[in-house]
Amino acid sequence: MRLLKLSLLLGAVGLTAGLIGCATTTTLQKSAVPTPKPVQEVLTDTTPRLAIIAAFGQEADLLIQSTQDKHEYMINGRKFVTGTLENTPVVITLSGISMTNAAMTTQMISDHFKLKGIVFSGIAGSLNPNYHVGDVVIAKSWIAPNEVYFNNNSTLPNACGKAGDISCLGIKLADNVPAWKNQFLRETNVMNANNYKNVALTSRFGDTDVPMAYGEMRVDFPVDNKMLNVVNKVQANTQTQLEAICTGSNCYKPKIVVGNRGVSGGAFLANAEYRDYLNKNLKGDCVDMETAAVAQVAYSNNIPFIAFRSLSDLAGADHDPNVAAFFGSGIAQRNAAKLTMAFIKEWNAEQ
To answer: Which among 60, 64, 89, 103 could bridge 49 via Cys, Cβ 3.0 to 4.6 Å?
Structure first.
């Protein structure tokens, strides 16, 4: 009863509207602050920053340890650390495992921080048998082959009257990509501020071409060319600084490789036949469960993007007892962090 009277009193003095406005506004809530000076709660951070999204906590911790003037914020239970790394304003967070978590985190960080670019880094399985455990792969584009037309058989779908035409369903098959058994790869519809008025797909109904999708239809999402050029500049010197991977007396010095495509999906890939399909037909070099989602969200928000992935194993191969030791050693995370630091330093010098 006392609460009811208090509400009525607040309404009488004209504060109710203000309370409603606060209730419907998302805020950055401060968490533990490592500096004596408290951080003010803000709706958005207006400093132009480079976002660093890591898949695993150890790598993020390594980068945060080197970050100056750190401040921590919590948004819906996720921690975001701002500060300066290699004289560059940054914001660092974890993606969470899975395509959905990665997409949500990337959209969240782009909503609340003013981003000049996104760097995503973590561990991946290898699709390319020519690469070695520990190599760091930078793919030129990222694809998510989980968007498919799952047919009853391996015959080219003809849902809209002719072979290969599924446009009347509002979707489109990827051109010249062989099916995986009965599953045919589809293009992805994506819209952003530059393309939302464009008709991306039409279908013929009688004598009329009817728009079925706007924006554009894409197979994959490219990394930013300027960011890729920065990688090319730091590649040789950083490679010499990577930690070797040793099994007994045998040691391998990892390489930094600019590959073709990275592949992401919701399934953990432990199938050698499907791995070979992705490598041969999609030109896939590595596979994970997050990066393509980050790439698509970055593309939708017109934010430059690049990803570094340290190879943990050959996806779908028989279990290698050394993989667990490799994971636990932290070498992959430390090597990825070294590349990230070198990239940031050079990227900042070119701004």
So the answer is: 89
Which listed CATH number (3.40.50.1580, 2.40.440.10, 3.40.50.300, 3.30.70.270) goes with 45-143+220-349?
A: 3.40.50.1580
User: In 3-state terms, what secondary structure has residue 261?
Assistant: strand
Q: Where are the domains of the chain?
A: 45-143+220-349, 148-218
248-275 tens-digit pLDDT: 788 888 999 999 999 999 888 878 888 8
Amino acid at the residue 13: V
Locate the DSSP E strands across the chain: 29-30, 45-54, 68-75, 78-85, 88-94, 113-126, 136-143, 148-150, 183-185, 188-190, 199-205, 208-214, 216-218, 221-222, 245-247, 250-252, 256-264, 284-288, 305-314
Spacing of C-alpha 289 from chain mean position: 9
Residues 136 and 339: beta-carbon distance below 8 Å: yes
d(CA 98, CA 252): 30
Please indicate, yes or no, whether the overall pTM of this predicted structure exceeds 0.85: no
Q: Which residues, 6+ apart, have CB-to-CB distance to 58 below 8 Å?
A: 330, 333
Q: Are strands 183-185 and 148-150 parallel, antiparallel or unpaired?
A: antiparallel
